[in-house]
Predict the 3D structure of the following.
Amino acid sequence: MKLPKFNGLKPVKCDDCGHSADFIRKIFSIGNVKNDKHCDDEVQGIISSHIRKSYGIAYVFFKTSNGKFYADSACCPKCQSTRIVFDIELTDDFLRQASKLTGKSVEELQRGIKVTAERIKKINEVRLH
Ligand SMILES: [Zn+2]
């Protein structure tokens, strides 16, 4: 089963030039990381530094889906920056779909999404320092 809260996460704006469409997504599948380490700041730091060095992508987001661990990134087609602002789509349709998939109520999901958003914000702040 997919994790719908992550499907609703999408690149919305380039933080460098303000461009807001046609971002190039690059998603890395990460092996050999235990499930309980997926949210570990140190683990994520090591992975993002590896991706930065190997692929020149400065900013990645981490997500877990079906027990698999991913790093997600977006690149601006205009200025090639990877400093892209991600936002969570909170449409009614999205929430209804997510509710159907997870068996959770829309209210529960909204709370979950808020927690996810805070977590992403926290990762972002760590990166920027
Ligand atoms: Zn740009």
